[in-house]
Design a protein that fits this description.
Elements: H1 31-38, H2 41-53, E1 56-58, H3 59-65, H4 68-84, E2 88-91, E3 96-99, H5 101-105, H6 107-116, H7 119-122
Antiparallel strand pairs: 1-3, 2-3
Helix pairs in contact: 2-6
């Protein structure tokens, strides 16, 4: 017999909440803004990549790891949004993307989100995988 009630019951899998001492409490941006950014798969993929690499990442590294469609989205959507929120600095002439201190401060949150994310999205592409 099928359930008519769309609410999950006790048999549905629910990710376990992280321990309270691992949940960041001081976010460098408004919670609503963070949720807005994290709602997009491509933005999460880019942020996972940048935080995994640390420091400055060059556009060539992104091009080696992501397909052309992702790169177009990065240039037209993700880079401008992350710049607006002061999460990255983007030097177009040098083709260099650097996490700002705000981006670095988001690292613990991104690590928690990444653990709960779809494995295909959470996987940080490697140059050799492409």
């Amino acid at each position: 017999m099928e359930r008519d009630d769309p609410r999950p019951d006790s048999t549905d899998a629910v990710p376990a909440a992280p321990p309270a001492d691992e949940v960041p409490t001081d976010l460098p941006i408004a919670l609503g803004d963070l949720f807005q950014l994290l709602a997009t798969d491509r933005t999460r993929q880019l942020l996972y990549f940048l935080t995994a690499r640390g420091g400055t990442v060059f556009v060539e590294e992104l091009e080696a790891a992501f397909d052309d469609e992702a790169m177009i989205g990065f240039h037209h959507v993700q880079f401008p949004r992350l710049i607006d929120f002061h999460i990255i600095d983007y030097d177009r002439e040098a083709g260099a993307i650097t996490l700002t201190p705000i981006g670095d401060d988001l690292r613990p949150v991104l690590e928690l989100v990444r653990e709960m994310d779809d494995p295909a999205i959470a996987a940080v592409p490697n140059r050799a995988e492409r």
